[in-house]
Amino acid sequence: MSFYDNEENLKLLCDFLRSREGPAVREALLMEKRVHYLKGEKLVNFLVEPKRGTKWPKKLPRFENRQDAIAVCKELCKLQFILRCEKRGKGELGMTRLRDFDEAGYFTWIYEGDMTQSHMLTAALVVGFLCCVCFPIWPSFLRVFVWYLSVSLLLFIFLLITVRALLFLFVWMVGWEFWFLPNLFDESLGFVDSFKPVISCEPTKPGQLPYRLGVGVAFFSFCYWAVTQPSEFDGFVAAQGDFLKDLYAGTLLSDMSQEDKENIDKPKVQSLDDLLKNLDEEIDKEDVVGDLEDEEELDSMLDNLIDVEEEIDEEEE
Q: DSSP states of 262-305 as a string?
């Protein structure tokens, strides 16, 4: 194919093959380095007939037959975008003298694509780490802002999870499985794909009617208790409100003074008065210990004199 004779177009193809839409790859160790590899046959099969649901880029022409796909794979080997290797064991690859493309061989990805984004993310990570390390010397208003932002984000996540669970519970009791942002916590998806689709609604599986009835009875029993026992439930609500107020005000640690909270990140260095006071206390302790030792020696001498007198009296008798 004349389009893939250009090296830049081959790089565009490799960018697509190395994306999430590309063929499945496995991880292994090659010369003590973790790499991604796949079999040549799977690469050719993907180029000729991509897996279902694959979004093939519009700017890349499709392959009409296996011969064209194999020719492009050979060109990838020639440019060292992929490297042929041999499989020695589970999760372990080795080098081989063969360099030509073969559908029966295993190939490791050497091409990494444009690393600009990766370098920018690495630099941002280093800068963010340094900013976190320097948190004690941040201005007071900035630390307060970070505190409010962290608390607000935590409460938002907790509220989102609670609302999703309650919506699912209400709709599930009537026979449907309804999820708001169903892929929100799917780690295999990217950031944007985690918010797709917005909602999903499917009928429940057969045999769940007893469970739905049981959950419904328990839920409405709780609602009846909340209505008939307003004093206890109102106390619970009031306690949660006080907790949120203390959380935003930073007064959850009531046993700490405001001065201690403000100076929590400052190094604790004793003043000259504190050092002199500690020195006086140590001297007083030494004096007390010395007086006690003198009294003990005097008592010991008196005891010895009494014992001597008693011995003399016994000898005279």
A: HTTTS-----HHHHHHHHHHHHHHHHHHHHHHHHHHHHHHHHHH
CA distance 208 to 214: 10
Average pLDDT over residues 241-265: 59
Q: Contact 148/248 with Cβ under 8 angstroms?
A: yes
Cα angle 204, 207, 213 (rounded to 5 degrees) comes to 80
- What pLDDT, on the 0 to 100 scale, is given for residue 106? 92
Name which of 79-93, 118-132, 212-226 the model is least confident about. 212-226
| pTM, 2 dp | 0.47
Strands (E), the chain: 26-30, 33-39, 82-89, 92-95, 106-109, 176-180, 199-203
How many residues in total does the chain contain? 317
Q: Considering only CA atoms, which of 30, 42, 18 is closest in space to residue 96?
A: 30
* Distance separating alpha carbons of residues 256 and 253, to the nearest angstrom: 6
* DSSP string covering 16-64: HHTSTTS---EEEEETTEEEEEEEHHHHHHHHHSPPTT----TTSPPP-
